[in-house]
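Dear colleague,

Thank you for sharing your sequence with our group. We've completed the structure prediction you requested, and as agreed, I am returning the results in plain text so they can be pasted directly into your records. Please verify that the sequence below matches your submission; if there's any discrepancy, let me know and we will rerun it promptly.
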Amino acid sequence: MRVACGSLVVLVGAVWSCTPRPAPVSPAEISELAGRVAQEPNNGALTLRYAAALHAAGRCDTAVVVARRGMALAPRDAVGPLVLGQCQERAQQYRDALATYRQFLTDNPSAPGSAAVRARELVASRASAIQEARTALAQEAALTRQPADAQTVAVLPIQVTGDSIYQPLSRGLAQMLTSDLALLRRFRMVERMQLTALLDEMRLGQTGRVDQASAARVGLLMRAGRLVQGLASIPGDRDTRLEASVLLGSGEVTTPAAATGRLKDLLTMEKDVVVALAGRMGYTLSEAERRAILENGTQNLAAFLAYSRALEAVDRADYGTAAAQYGEAARLDPGFAAAREGFEAASAASDAATADPSEVTVLAAKPAQTALPAVQGTVAAVGSTTSDLMPTHVEQINAIGGEPTQLAVGTTTAQPPLLTAPQIGIIRIVFRLP
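Please find the predicted structure tokens below.
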């Protein structure tokens, strides 16, 4: 977008000034930039553009050195972590890349280019999880001879029975249990994406079921001394039941922690199960931890179902669909921080994952996508707190936003159509400056 100097263009979600947007960098600039940096050694932006040109030329050995120098001079400039992190990714040093991205986001959560850095973090997280899963399987013989860490906990995908429309909750509930248990000081949680990658490599990810023998094997590969297994039974015509038990390194399985109630209360039931699970693992929650668990996440089931569909999309690297579903979740519950953060990352991830190295300077200047997609009117019905959720198949489809179809009792519904990429309304207001 071109903006004429002497005017200020205001867009909903972003403000662009007369400052020209950075142009893509080219390897042809390397010689000129090297000379200019020699003359202006304290110019952080110039140093980072030089690093970007080296990166575009595939010269990561030198680009890394120059990028680190530029980051010291211009710590809020996203070009630095994008160049350094992508060079680390190219060398398959994914953990180093994640550390680079996360440090920048911790120090500069809202700096220009933070969306691109968050997007690269998302892409690198998936690649790192796949790499570590393959490494664990390759070293399985050695790993099985070592005791797992009793304080490391992994939450397996929750088995969901009932209408297929609720199958995404398998990932969503596992992520929520992981997030809630992570609030307890004693335990180190295995990231859901890591566990999903391992299950996929073991060819267990698509079945949604992990038997006790496979679960024990997963625990050894993940170095997790405790695995949480759960079941969500959503029959439609009867109460919903959520239960979870802990498989210990000794092979012992604890008595399930369980809660029963109406479907619309599923997320409240999840909190009850978390508190009970902590007790099964011999942990007594402080009052502060109990409050933190109760306040974590969302209590809007419609938002949570969209969030769960977004996790499915991220796991298959479908970032456009993930952005739409995260956006729907955040729009339904504006206080759902994980959904909003996921929306911003996934919105930028499609570009970040496929961008040419020469475009790093453009991505670093791109503002975060903050305008959420509009929610279809029928979707809001899922989050109703005044009636039970979706008592019939026809109402299920209507509530999620699909086309109503008469179904026989006992049949399953197809996956509801996903929203397309977020549609953003833009209002242009032009002020003529004196």
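Summary note from our side: The domain at 147-296 is CATH 3.40.50.10070 (Rossmann fold).

Kind regards,
the structure core
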